[in-house]
Amino acid sequence: MRVTEKHLRDEVTNRCIEFLDIAINFILYIEQIYSNDIFEKRLKYNLIVYECHDIEIQNYISDFLNQIKSLLHKQLIDQIGFVITTNNENEILRRYIIELHPIIEHSSNTIHTNGNYLFAELDSIFSTCLIELMRQIPISPLTISTENDDDDDDDNDQIRWKLQIRLCHQRNSKFEVEETFYEQFKLIDNCLLSLKQIKSVHSQRLNIQIMCQDKKAT
Q: Which residue intervals define the domain HORMA in the entry (predicted)?
């Protein structure tokens, strides 16, 4: 299939956003943050993955991805973080880091004759990354609090999660990002977390790396 560079860039961005949606839902499932009852099986990249069907959770994920789509397309962000904390959000238990580096050509009018191959290659590396995520062991068993639970200690053990982004250091990205959104979702370096690489893959149009940071043992 023949595609222009402009179309290829757009499609790479769309597929990256789709992968992030799948990966975020899958991390929610493998970390057992919620009961399995709110997840549904679906087939993607020739793999069985799990999607959360809670409306509030899906709205949060969708709003986040809609905000970062144009930033990713402009290569203004290079890391997306999935952060697991206690109720004290400063106490990070685990953080997944997904680095996405699309590779572009300077001329948007360039014609590529191998479009089908490039798209299939993207799906293949996304599949490889999800397979490695499947090997992750949950950071903590599911903790459930009830409305009648008045024990503050139990409440502090409740697992929470949020999404974050890191702006590209080599560009003045901050001036192109809505300030309120950036302050809400900015990823902050934390020297108290250990770092483990889950998967790193390089392809013609995308370099992707997935890492996991855990709270260091004291």
A: 10-218
